[in-house]
Amino acid sequence: MSGAIQVRDRRADAENPWTMTRVGGRAVLELSLEGSVVVDPGTAPRTLQDKIDRRSHDAACVRFPGPAASRVSERKAVLEADSVATKSFDVWISMLDETISSHHLGASLYTTKVWRRKTYSDMTSIETAAVRLLKNELKGWRSSTPETQVAVFRAIVESIERLSILPIFISDLTSMATRSRWFSLPLSHSPDGVVSEHGRAPTIEMSHTNERVRTANALPESVTAAYERAIIDNGSKEDAMRAMEQARSYSERFLSGLAPSVDISEDGVVTFQWRRPDRGVLLVFTGDNTVSCAVKVPGGHYSTSNISAPIDEPMPSTVMSAIEMTR
Amino acid sequence: MDCERETTSQHYQAEQGGGFGPVCPDETVLLAVFQSTAYDAALQRLEPKAFKPSQLKNFEFSVARRAHTGRSDFDEYVIAPAQRRGDPLIGIASAQVGSIKDLMFVCPDTVPNLVGRAVCLLDLVEQFDHDGHASLGYSESQYELTEKQKKNVRARIHADLADLFGGANPIDQVAFGS
User: Fold this and answer.
1) Judged by CB atoms within 8 Å, which residues 29-48 of A form the interface with B?
2) Which of A183, A204, A225 is the last residue of a domain?
3) Domain residue limits at A19
4) What is the reported pLDDT for A298?
């Protein structure tokens, strides 16, 4: 697919190279490098072309749904993407580090390992990740002068451009994409305006990690599947593994035939939830050999309800009764 | 004291009289629900996962104060940037500030049981925000909990926040401020 995607870069017309806004809690750096994306007919799935055709922002992501894939192949795609992303980020961060240290902002990006993992879960582009990092991780950022902030932002822009000339990380966009249900790949561009298959770090859409279990015996497998797709902070991985194993074991022994929503948070907490508009039951597994049960009744809250039980004992009857009322 | 920062304006130009002051209990806050937002389409409600610990720890969970946010500001600062990223708007969820501030947590693993505010809501406006911006974050009383206790308590808080904000309504049905 080499040469299949092209970006017409209008950077020369842009007076302001970047702007910053806040969206849904995220500070977003938007490069004013507008371009239109063109896909040669027949070189990408129709769904991909549809998505690309709607873009006018060359620093943005292309998203497209793939066909329903088996769990094994989905997992493989996630692992491959993770590997690619890690390599790209390592190189990119090391380049940025030089700039950051030269402005005495008080931190080394390379040492903020937690950040790198954390941003996977909700970043939509490498630029977004950069701004979040600057604002959250650098102690000197808020107190730095506007001139310094502008200089650092510009350094980010330049580093992104340099990133586009890194060695090949992605060899086959189409096949990789169709192995995952949702997959986004930031487009990169080179000075001559042609995007090759030398893409930047891909990101996985994580909005689909919530599993609604539909069959009686599917809960343990659903826990495993949610875990495999979850993006978990580096510092919480061990806890998440324990929580997943305990939730799976608990569901095998005591929750047969039940069908809650299953979720794994970025800090490694496994939750099962039975939910109706006015009531619900929440089971929380943090990996500490207990299950925490919260029952919400009409007018009440989960936050003030808590029944903690050992992981090897059946669920309290009051909680089971509450679950029955949500079914 | 929980949420002490709620009592004074956190607007970056507060000393010069900028902003609308602290968020009041009788206000309503708006939350844009995008395609990427964790949203249960079957239940027509936000999922607990929409409330991310990484954002709530740092008061980075953004909402808009309805009374102080015009439709044009909402379009410019919230919707347009997301749409340029290919993240279309699904709708607008909303919650009463009083309900958010009334939300308490109980940690049964402490003796005596620790009780505190679940989240705080600040009029945190920085240079690139619109003046109606506000930020949601965990309350200070959770600082004294262990990490395990925090995770447990916060998982329940996320579920409550999802219910408080409820479902997304079409943006044209939202009465924005001026």
Assistant:
1) 30
2) A204
3) 5-204
4) 92
Token pair of A201 as six digits: 């770090």
Using the Cβ of A234 and the Cβ atoms of chain B, whether some distance falls under 8 Å is answered with: no
Best of A16, A19, A20, A23 to disrupt the B interface (most B CBs within 10 Å) is A23
User: How large is the C-alpha radius of gyration of chain A?
Assistant: 23
Report how far residue A121's alpha carbon sits from residue A116's, in angstroms, rounded to the nearest whole number: 10
Q: Which of residues 70-129 of A touch B (CB under 8 A)?
A: 118, 121-122, 124-125
Question: How much is the average pLDDT of B140-163?
Answer: 94
- Where is average pLDDT lowest: A68-72, A143-147, A269-273? A68-72
Tell me whether residues A306 and B152 touch, CB distance under 8 A: yes
pLDDT for B21: 94
A185 shares a domain with A39:
yes
Residue B112 pLDDT: 82
Q: Is the pLDDT of residue B64 over 60?
A: yes
pLDDT greater than 90 at residue A176: no
Nearest-Cα residue of chain A relative to residue B133: A22
Nearest to A290 by CA among A267, A266, A306: A306
A236 and A186 in a single domain? The answer is no
Instruction: Identify each DSSP E strand in chain A by its residue range.
Output: 5-9, 18-23, 26-31, 35-39, 61-65, 182-186, 194-195, 203-204, 211-212, 261-264, 270-275, 280-285, 290-296, 307-310
SS3 assignment, position B61: strand
**Domain-terminating residue out of A174, A204, A234:** A204
What's the mean per-residue pLDDT of chain B?
93
ipTM of this complex prediction, to 2 decimal places:
0.94
Task: Mark whether A51 and A191 lie in a shared domain.
Answer: yes
Predicted pLDDT of residue A148: 65
Helix, strand, coil content of chain B in percent (nearest 5): 35, 25, 40
Neighbours of A221 (CB within 10 A): 15
